[in-house]
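Issue 218. Parser rejects a valid record. Input:
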Amino acid sequence: MHGIFSPCKIPLYNKTHWNSWFRMVIYAKEHIIYWPSFFKEEFDNDKKHVILMAINSCLQNEKESGIITIYLNFISFYAKEFIQDLDFFQQLNKPIFPLIELQLQQLTSYIEMYRNSNDFGPSLENLIIQLRFNPNDFYAIFRLAFETAYSKFSAHIPNHPTRPLFHACQVFDPRYIHAGDLLRKNIRQYNIIKEFANPSDELLREWGIYCGLDNEFLGEIELDQYWLNKATQLPILSNIALDYIWLPISSCTVERSFSMYNSLLDNDRQSLSKDSLKGLSMLFGFQVGFQSTEIPKIRLAIQIISEEWKKPSFISLELGLASQVGLLSSEE
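Output the parser choked on:
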């Protein structure tokens, strides 16, 4: 049996440190019914343990245990929106940059809605009453929690330097262009996109065609595939769109690249040229979860490091990576 002195790792699916705290609270909410008996047994085995004494005393107190249960349920329920948003922002191998502005608007509305709310749902209200508390006493605290979240959110997000670019890049989602009024079709209002600041006649012609494709956009759209399919009809606009829809959302991509370089530049691989390092990083980055549209990029990476392949010390890694992504045929 596991206990304080024989711990067992909690089976959390911590994809990122951003939302692992929320997931920990959700796990605690689902298992709090086991806490009183668990900590009582632990305390019975070690009566001199001060921390165990405090925890056991709290959990055996009906009022204090009830308050903990209420807060865990509140956080678990209302943190789901934040978890979903954080997971959305960290998606890999998906062109989500044009979708960020809408996501931020929805998150803003969600936080604002509960800042002054007197209704936090029947399930939470029933739980509070069941534990013999007054819901209004807790609602004031819940509102304060959302007010604090809103203060932090509004201090950073609305005036963030990338916010105008998030807004402008919505134009690369055809659903945005065709779901709004005519003002959305004015290319001049998106001049933070440098290619739109002084558009050429050919780009303006392609923009007019793009804005006139009203009947094409039904159902879900894969943005990268959509713009690849438009490469013949709208070559200039397609190239611009494919650059912007793949922009990174946060610093996570950069942080991952540092970790990746640590794997590439180990003690035995210190003489790589810049081109070789660039090619290897592309191979390494695309070996998991790459899209079919990325195959040309990986082939280019292989071409860049072709000279390095002649060196025995590099053959195993490059061939291993290439075979994992299925780039080498049996003849090769």
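Fixed in the parser; the record now loads. The chain has a mean pLDDT of 78.
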